[in-house]
Amino acid sequence: MRRSHITQRNGASRMPPAGDGAARQYTVGKPGGDADAAPETIPWDDGRRSTEVLPHEVFTADEAADVFGAYFRAGEVGAPYVLHRREDV
Fold it and tell me: What is the pLDDT of residue 15?
């Protein structure tokens, strides 16, 4: 099964407006799990980049599709998910 990880932080489920026209990237966080667990590395952009996430934050393809669909329709990921802004891109 292929797993994917969507990209936001700070307890928000809606991305704040950039205001400056700059692009921003976010990861989507899932509640629960063991905060002391070893992170998993999720490669993306044909392996040129990667993101470390806790095991419970790795989405199945079906979960990712549901979150993406909700974001597309409503402009937010919705509870219980939160967005984490990526500072490294």
Answer: 55
